[in-house]
Hints:
Elements: H1 3-19, E1 21-24, E2 27-30, H2 39-42, E3 50-51, E4 62-69, E5 77-80, E6 90-95, E7 98-104, E8 110-117, E9 125-132, E10 138-144, E11 148-153, E12 158-164, E13 170-175, E14 182-187, E15 192-196, E16 201-206, E17 216-221, E18 228-233, E19 238-242, H3 247-255, E20 266-268, E21 273-275, E22 284-288, E23 291-295, E24 300-308, E25 316-325, E26 337-338, E27 344-348, E28 354-358, E29 365-370, E30 379-384, E31 390-395, E32 399-405
Parallel strand pairs: 3-25, 16-20
Antiparallel strand pairs: 1-2, 4-32, 5-6, 6-7, 7-8, 9-10, 10-11, 11-12, 13-14, 14-15, 15-16, 17-18, 18-19, 19-21, 22-23, 23-24, 24-25, 26-27, 27-28, 28-29, 30-31, 31-32
Amino acid sequence: MGTHKVCEKIFYFFSCLVEQKFPLFGKRVGLLVSCAADMAAKFALGSEPVVGSLAPSKKKEYRVTNRLQEGKRPLYAIVFNFIDSRYFNVFATVGGNRVTVYQCLEGGVIAVLQSYIDEDKDESFYTVSWACNIDGSPLLVAGGINGIMRVIDCGSEKIDKSFVGHGDSINEIRTQPLKSSLVVSASKDESVRLWNVQTGICILIFAGAGGHRNEVLSVDFHPSDIYRIASCGMDNTVKIWSMKEFWTYVEKSFTWTDLPSKFPTKYVQFPVFIASIHTNYVDCNRWLGDFLLSKSVDNEIVLWEPKMKEQSPGEGTVDILQKYPVPECDIWFIKFSCDFHYNAAAIGNREGKIFVWELQSSPPVLIAKLLHPQSKSPIRQTATSFDGSTILSCCEDGTIWRWDAMESS
């Protein structure tokens, strides 16, 4: 690929971000792009991926405003509620057999709202996601080592449902942003499952002949194509799946009146695309428009474009566009987060440092590097607030850190 071709790719990437829409609360929120049109004239883009510089741009500065010691057990997940605009400053964490709900208040204050202790003291939750009940009340869906998904109604403060189906531990749960009663789960049992949290039905199982050959570590819904998901795992691959031809099962799950166990759950055995971007475990993938961000244990996040062959499902080529270096990020199960508009991604490392990368620029710009002398424990996950002004991290030592953007003087 020549220089002009890569330029076209970068511009296509940004134009897709501009066009990407997020229907939410009846409004359409467009993505903002900060890349100037003359970018290509300033940077000679060759056939190699564009690699970001680790020199912080200081476009935004953050300071620690709070540190909480939740317990002694590791915290594996932390996530803001982007499903309901009433609760954008509310977040949840999981660690051990506990799910805790907090609220970010002014002045760096973190208030504890609710806490749930699982009946099984040996449960260790690895993941949590926000969803929505039919009456609009917020739900939390958590899963972990036992392979059971707990659906918690935050309105009634009770367990609403328990989903049993996976044959091993659950590594990640994500919610469909366009239809927030649908969640997808990735498991050690080598499968991905689609669930309806309203009816308790397991709709689809993505596994089989073309499925993952080891633990599935991460999964994500496409932000605007309601039929598409991406999954990745210990078989070093990223797989893109389509639900389009199985969508009647999804629709049927909302009107099903018999027992959930009698629903005709469908197996989806073949993905529409398989990518071997990495040479080791792939533990986090997120859609960025029609492109994908993924990371392995090789100290970087990679932005790439899947180019599918319409006539040959599962086949195609990959264009690696950009790389975002993350030093000392060479252990698995470290996940990054983005703000609502995908302006930035925040990722921690095994030394307790956080790197905040600007996503809508080329070459990639390091917005900030967050470090504190007392933050030394591996950061398992970050949570970036709706507007990117607050970044949270949950750590192996059971701590939660809050960083807030400082106002420009």
